[in-house]
Amino acid sequence: MVNPPVPHTPRRATWAALLVAITFFMENLDATVIATALPQMAHDFGQNPVSLNIGISAYLLAVAVFIPLSGWVADRFGARQVFAGAIGLFSLASLLCGLAPSLELFVIARVLQGVGGALMVPVGRLVVLRMTEKQGLVKMLAVITWPGLVAPVLGPPVGGLIVTHLSWPWIFFLNIPLGLLAIAAAWWLIPNTRASEARRFDLLGFVLLASACAAWVLGLEMFGSLSSGSLGAGVVLMGAGGLLTWLSIRHCQRHAAPLLPLATLGIATFRASIVGGTLFRLSISALPFLIPLLLQVGFGLSPVDAGLLVLAIFAGNLAMKPFTTVLLRRHGFRRVLLANGVIGVGCILACLLLRPDMPWYWTALVLFIGGLSRSMQFTTYNAVGFADVPKAQMGEASTLFSMFFQLAMALGVAIAALLLRVSMWGRGAEGEMTVGDFHWALVGLALIACAGLVDAARLPGNAGEQVLRT
């Protein structure tokens, strides 16, 4: 139970949601923004560009490991202090990243940045969920969600622009003024809620959950590296991740006050958002990685031309936002998830029809429609997931959701890379990828997205209807 209740208005909740959306954008942007800066950073550090991938992996790993702490820390120390402190840590770590004179210090700064990101968004989302009445849930989650969708798409071109016209440290320095403004806004907008009775810290639960997340993320990174020597290590780590996940679940079910209670998984709508939603998210999250590679490696486009075409996904994300709530209120969660899910699968398969000699506007149209569907499906899964969760359980639900969201983002890229590798092995090739390899990867992602719709089909027709009432 959260105490004390803090009076707030819908306008205050909206401003808080916008603040959380900004931090969500910062967190997801920094996961991908250095991709185009790796060659310049490698030159400055005196390293091989491939070695700089650890800068991305270290960030994703830190976020995954420390997300399980977010709910307990917010209840123990107060949401306002934790949220503002996490923004401060993220901003300070950004400064240290830009000033780092060596790869080792850069990686340490990236880990600190990941810790800040792991606490920043889940705690902020939790606050907004507690401030918002059920009828406003769809709107608030749409506000929070779309920056996280567009950040992976914008990251590489933004990084490329900064590196071209400034230098790579400015990728991180730009977070500092945003962070300072966000801290000031947090003290004004975020109520200082905390649990009336602080739970004891579940150390064993944290170790098991953090180790499981670390094993999954590292194993997925190994799978996605496409190097022959990494496959065995990836298998071992994924096996360890599965074992640690089982031990974590067993511990959380038996412990009197676990770090991560699992009671919310008994709620059908939340379970559908976690299980089916994760499968759909990972398939859709792979496209901003796979499509630019297809356009450059398969079709021979320049990075700039490929980046401009991929921005059509971003345009689709933005264009859908004004219609999300209207469509959900008219058709309901289950129908939208199924119909829009089929459209999303169709958009993945439509990429099989893309050709190098096709006019650019047809390619942009396919990606734009895919962006529309992607945005709608993400927001719908997010909203239906929290529709039936009591406010007293929002903390554990938000933490669970954040863990699976982060894993889905990493899993999508790794699965796409693995599908490419399997296709190359199947034709006995160890050299360059072909368009056919990308086609097999797209078919695999479409099948995964279809599997994600099974849980949506099992939902009742009136699932989550209380949040859609005007």
What does this structure look like?
- The chain has 470 residues and is an all-alpha fold.
- It has three domains: 1-201, Growth Hormone, Chain: A; 205-258, no CATH class; 264-470, Growth Hormone, Chain: A.
- The chain has 19 helices and two strands.
- Helix 13 packs antiparallel against helix 19 (435-458) and helix 14 crosses helix 17 (360-387).
- The longest helix has 33 residues, at 394-426.
Q: What key attributes describe this structure?
A:
globular; Growth Hormone, Chain: A; disordered N terminus; 470 residues; 19 helices; mainly alpha; single chain; 3 domains; 2 strands; two-stranded antiparallel sheet
Secondary-structure topology with pairs:
Blueprint: E1 2-3, H1 10-32, H2 38-45, H3 53-66, H4 70-77, H5 79-99, H6 103-131, H7 137-165, H8 169-173, H9 175-189, E2 194-195, H10 203-224, H11 230-254, H12 268-285, H13 287-298, H14 303-320, H15 324-331, H16 333-350, H17 360-387, H18 394-426, H19 435-458
Antiparallel strand pairs: 1-2
Helix pairs in contact: 1-6, 1-7, 1-9, 3-6, 3-10, 4-5, 4-6, 4-18, 5-6, 5-9, 6-18, 7-14, 7-17, 10-11, 10-18, 12-17, 12-18, 12-19, 13-14, 13-19, 14-17, 15-16, 16-17, 16-19, 18-19
Q: CATH top level of the largest domain?
A: Mainly Alpha
Helix/strand/pairing category? mainly alpha
Largest sheet, in brief, is: 2 strands, antiparallel
SS strand fraction? under 5%
Provide the spatial order of strands within the biggest beta sheet: 1-2
Q: Give the end-to-end Cα distance, rounded to a whole number of Å.
A: 27 Å
Query: Percent of residues in helical segments?
Result: over 70%
Q: Please count the beta strands (DSSP E, at least 2 residues each).
A: 2
Structure annotation, total helices: 19
Give the CATH topology of the largest domain. Answer: Growth Hormone, Chain: A
- Helices and strands, in order, run as EHHHHHHHHHEHHHHHHHHHH
Please indicate the count of domains. 3
At the fourth level of CATH, the homologous superfamily of the largest domain is MFS general substrate transporter like domains
Please state the CA-atom Rg, rounded to the nearest Å: 21 Å
Shape, principal axes of CA atoms = globular
Unreliable stretches (pLDDT < 50, length at least 5) are 1-7
Q: Could you say what the CATH architecture of the largest domain is?
A: Up-down Bundle
Rounded mean pLDDT score: 77
